[in-house]
């Protein structure tokens, strides 16, 4: 655990269109699930794992997110990556924030998914499995059958060594990306300066056989729509 990442990038800049009307007057990361915002739940995981700094990007209703973060209890350094001028998507948002991010590798966490740890906390599991000699990115995956409120067909196939390949068009795949990963800083070398999604970087890592996954053993929910909020609250009541 000596290489445990000290910094996490928290993606909180999305428009939350699928979550309307809940996001008409508030950003999606501040939607509450079980009496706590999704952003706070994410930051709680980071702090509990020992992460020292969270870089949070903001765009839609950015002032609300900044005010909320300013009111949080201490214990985790917060830095803001401002995307008010242009929404940069997942890959572009992290690229812009790199000057604020410490370390050769770091966590990237979506603020709009919710997870409950299994026997080993998932951030620790990622850190334990991280091997910079063979990996550019290590993704936390959940089996499609256990992806609560998720309506997709899965994202990845994973071989016995943990290497990932995309689901083929029109087919199913057994694993869903949870929105949590460790990524190497050098994977961003040569990345575009404008908006782009993480798939561009994952394709780059996959082409070099350096995109890996590990299976999340706890609960996970895709909290993307208002009905998913109620379903996730029901799921949390079973924990």
UniProtKB/TrEMBL annotation:
One MF term in the entry's GO annotations: nucleotidyltransferase activity
Gene3D superfamilies xrefs: Spore Coat Polysaccharide Biosynthesis Protein SpsA, Chain A
SUPFAM superfamilies assigned to the protein according to its UniProt record, in alphabetical order: Nucleotide-diphospho-sugar transferases
Keywords from the named record: Nucleotidyltransferase, Transferase
Domain Nucleotidyl transferase: 8-129
Signal peptide start and end residues: none
InterPro entries: GlmU-like (IPR050065), NTP_transferase_dom (IPR005835), Nucleotide-diphossugar_trans (IPR029044)
One Pfam family recorded for the sequence: NTP_transferase
Keyword Nucleotidyltransferase found: yes
PANTHER family, sorted: N-ACETYLMURAMATE ALPHA-1-PHOSPHATE URIDYLYLTRANSFERASE, NUCLEOTIDYL TRANSFERASE
Protein name per its UniProtKB record: Nucleotidyltransferase family protein
Naturally occurring in which organism (per UniProt): Glacieibacterium arshaanense
Organismal lineage: Bacteria, Pseudomonadati, Pseudomonadota, Alphaproteobacteria, Sphingomonadales
């Amino acid at each position: 655990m000596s290489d445990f990442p000290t910094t996490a990038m928290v993606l909180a800049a999305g428009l939350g269109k699928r979550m309307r009307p809940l996001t008409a007057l508030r950003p999606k990361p501040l939607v509450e699930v079980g009496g706590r915002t999704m952003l706070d739940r994410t930051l709680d995981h980071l702090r509990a794992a020992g992460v020292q700094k969270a870089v949070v990007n903001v765009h839609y209703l950015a002032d609300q997110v900044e005010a909320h973060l300013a009111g949080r209890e201490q214990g985790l350094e917060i830095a803001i990556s401002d995307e008010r001028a242009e929404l940069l998507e997942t890959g572009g948002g992290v690229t812009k924030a790199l000057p604020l991010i410490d370390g050769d590798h770091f966590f990237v966490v979506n603020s709009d998914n919710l997870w409950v740890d299994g026997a080993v906390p998932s951030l620790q599991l990622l850190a334990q499995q991280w091997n910079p000699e063979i990996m550019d990115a290590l993704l936390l995956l959940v089996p499609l059958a256990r992806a609560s409120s998720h309506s997709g067909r899965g994202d990845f196939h994973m071989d016995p060594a943990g290497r990932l390949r995309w689901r083929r068009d029109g087919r199913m795949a057994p694993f869903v990306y949870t929105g949590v990963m460790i990524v190497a800083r050098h994977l961003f070398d040569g990345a575009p300066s404008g908006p782009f999604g993480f798939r561009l970087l994952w394709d780059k890592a996959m082409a070099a056989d350096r995109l890996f996954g590990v299976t999340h053993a706890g609960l996970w929910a895709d909290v993307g729509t208002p009905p998913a909020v109620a379903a996730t609250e029901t799921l949390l009541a079973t924990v």
